[in-house]
Write a structure and sequence with these properties.
Helix 4 packs across helix 7. Strands 1, 2, 3, 4, 5 and 6 form a 6-stranded antiparallel beta sheet that branches. This protein has 7 helices and 6 strands; from the N terminus they run E-H-E-H-H-E-H-H-E-E-E-H-H. The protein has one domain: BirA Bifunctional Protein, domain 2 (2-Layer Sandwich). Strand 4 and strand 5 form a beta hairpin. The longest helix has 19 residues. By secondary structure, it is of the alpha+beta class.
Length: about 200
C-alpha cells in the first residue's frame, strides 16, 4: 500500500483508535530521523553550490525542504506500507502473526541496501494493531543532475537508477518498483513456507 505518511503516527507520538497502547512496546523502530536533518545531510552541499552560481537573488533557495513542500513537482517523501495476510489469518496476537513480523523484519533488513537512492528516514514495524505491518518512509533522490541542484529530490530518477525506466500510464516506474518489492517479500515468505495468493485487491490503509 502507499500511505500519505504520518511519521508522528508511525512513531506513536499519538495513538489512533485502532491501536492498542498496551502492545506498543512490541513495535520495532528501525529508524526515526527528523526529515529536515536528513534533507540537510543529503542536499546542503549541492544547495550551496547551486546558490553560489546564481546571479539573481530571486533564484536563491534558502531552504530546499520548504521549496519541495511548497512546489507541485515532487513530494518531500514517500511511504509504503507492507502487510502479510489480514487479521483473520495473521492476527498480531497469534503465532502466525509473529511469523509475519519475522518475515517483515527480514525484508526490512535488506531494504536500504537494495534501494540506495531511496533514503529511509523513518521505518516502523507495528505490532499494536490488528495485523503486523511495516511503514517505510523515504526520500527519493538523484545525484549528478545537470539542471537545478546536482543532488535533488526526484522519484523518477531515483527509480531509474534502480533499473525501473520508461513507465507507461498503467505501468509507471513506481508501479514497476512496487511489484519488484512485493516479489522480494514473496521470496522471503516462501522461505517460511507461506505462498502469496495474488488477489489483485488494493486496500486503503
Amino acid at each position: 500500500m502507499t500511505g500519505k505518511g504520518s511519521v508522528n503516527h508511525n512513531s506513536r507520538k499519538f495513538h489512533a483508535k485502532n491501536t492498542d497502547p498496551e502492545r506498543s512496546c512490541l513495535n520495532v523502530e528501525y529508524c526515526n530521523k527528523n526529515i529536515k536533518d536528513v534533507y540537510h545531510e543529503l542536499f546542503d552541499e549541492a544547495l550551496a553550490r547551486y546558490n553560489e552560481k546564481q546571479t539573481r537573488s530571486d533564484r536563491i533557495i534558502d531552504d530546499y525542504y520548504e521549496k519541495i513542500c511548497s512546489g507541485k513537482q515532487e513530494k518531500p517523501f514517500h511511504e509504503i506500507i507492507l502487510q502479510i495476510g489480514n487479521k483473520d489469518d495473521m492476527g498480531a496476537r497469534t503465532e502466525d502473526g509473529q511469523l509475519a513480523a519475522k518475515i517483515l523484519d527480514e525484508y526490512m533488513q535488506d531494504f536500504q541496501r537494495r534501494n540506495p537512492t531511496l533514503r529511509v528516514f523513518s521505518a516502523h514495524l507495528h505490532m499494536d494493531e490488528a495485523t503486523p505491518h511495516l511503514h517505510i518512509d523515504f526520500i527519493p533522490y538523484t545525484t549528478g543532475s545537470k539542471r537545478g541542484l546536482e543532488t535533488r529530490v526526484s522519484l523518477k530518477k531515483a527509480l531509474a537508477e534502480l533499473g525501473f525506466k520508461g513507465g507507461t500510464r498503467s505501468e509507471t516506474e513506481r508501479n514497476q518498483w512496487v511489484a519488484a518489492e512485493k516479489e522480494r517479500l514473496a521470496e522471503i515468505m516462501l522461505q517460511h513456507n507461506i505462498e502469496w495468493e495474488k488477489k489483485g485487491t488494493h486496500e486503503k490503509h
